[in-house]
Amino acid sequence: MSFEIGLITFGELTADPATGQLPEPHQHLRHVIELAEVADQAGLDVIGVGEHHRSDFVATAPPMVLAAMAQRTRRIRLTSAVTVLSSDDPVRVWEQFATLDLLSSGRAEIIAGRGSYTESFPLFGYDLADYADLFREKLDLLLRIRETNPLTWSDGRFRPPLHEADIAPRSLQKELPIWVGVGGTPTSAVETGARGLPVMLGVLLGTVGSHSRIVDLYRLAAERAGRDPATLRVGLGVQGHVGRTSAEARRTMYPHFTAGFRDNNHKRGEGFVLSPEKFDAFTGPQGALVVGSAQEVIDKVAAYHEVYGISRLLLHVGFGGMPQARILESVERLATEVAPVLRRELAVPTVTYAGATDRR
Description:
alpha/beta, TIM Barrel, 8-stranded parallel barrel, 11 helices, Luciferase-like_sf, oxidoreductase activity, acting on paired donors, with incorporation or reduction of molecular oxygen, LLM class flavin-dependent oxidoreductase, Bact_Lucif_Oxidored, monooxygenase activity
């Protein structure tokens, strides 16, 4: 199992901390597409686009953004990060990503999630009281669509049944990859492991080991369902920046990260000003954020790998309106200085669960 390295972008619109100016949406979308081009040319493996239904994000329709990326790239894999499946129609999600798979010559993926931003639920007429049940039912249907066509289905309560439905197009890949995005909810981890689906662990703040119990539960659930936990993929999505030096990386990231954390999280009740001292703690050796020189980033990812047995890293770069030039410099360093070392050193995953470490 090779180790994959890529990027995440949310396309958030954050005012420049120095000038107070907001980016123009059309220009920011061009920057998002340029990010994919540079990542592809530099040799990164994956790029993900997050889904947020608010005016301070430009990526309300990730499949369209990913389709534009597909036409400007050649080899990088293209995924949502995440698709808020609970408030979407699995039939439409399949159609969009199967079309993306055809456009990209077989490079599409889906990371399905419940959604930590919940604006899409009232927007599309869903009740947050059904948050978990919506995701469970819709993921079931999406997996059935991937497996069978035409499809007869009548197992849900949130949409009408399907009878011999021809759901097209079919993906170019024999099995279009579907991951599940999981945060800190144990139930999500258990259900994902029982299904035998790859998991993308979303880490925001805290420490490197703060989600270890979640991954343990994921692998234990897989084992109890008769699956080999060592065959299941665990990915990590985390914010970070690769700088020329440790000090330069932190100095570049801090004002933008704290602005984004304040401005783009406030509508879900998590916006606050992150002090320099707290930021330093979150970027230190045990902190969750992947920030620093190339060697520091290598060491931090290796630490995550040791705890979780990850085989994919998606670094969320530029959060909070970091200038495009600084983002692209970080991407180049990630691709040329970090990725070769991680691919070489972490090619054999470490599987950690139930208090035991098994090198396979």
